[in-house]
Amino acid sequence: MSTSLREIEDAGKSVQREFASSLSTLLIHLLKWQCQPSRHNRTWQFTNCTQRKEVAYALNEAPSLRGKFNDPAWLDIVWSKARSIVSNETGLDIDVFPEVLPWSAEDLISQGFYPE
Predict the structure, then answer these.
(1) Alpha helices in 36-71 (DSSP H)
(2) Does some domain include residue 115?
């Protein structure tokens, strides 16, 4: 494999990791928003807005990433990570949170979406 092809593959993997990280952070804050309504604050809103922009930017720069929303194994990894972190941070049992991501890709990138 040529060096330039390897560099392109490495760059693609980096974009995927950044996308997964932004999406995971967004999911963490949406779960906190949902399970801790008394703690809603501007910082959480700002984080949600920022992470949505990061996710949207990644999707705009690499439209093929949208396919990740149709990859159950990949979504399970990102969702499981978010559930685990929120469970640890809130002290709530992980079973309080749905086992499967309940929101659509459109919900996640919509600036107006906040779970009940």
Answers:
(1) 42-61
(2) no
- Per DSSP (E only), the strands in the chain are none
Q: Is residue 18 part of a domain?
A: yes
53 domain residue, yes or no? yes
What's the structural domain count of the chain?
1
The two structure tokens encoding residue 95? 């079973």
In a domain, 38, yes or no: yes
C-alpha span between 69 and 112 (Å, rounded): 20
Between the CA of residue 93 and those of 40, 86, 116, what are the distances in Å?
20, 9, 19
CA angle centred on 25, ends 22 and 29, rounded to 5°: 140
pLDDT digits (tens, 9 = 90+) for 15-56: 889 999 999 999 999 999 999 988 888 998 899 999 999 999
Q: What is the pLDDT of residues 47-95, one digit of tens each?
A: 999 999 999 999 998 899 999 999 999 999 999 999 999 999 999 999 9
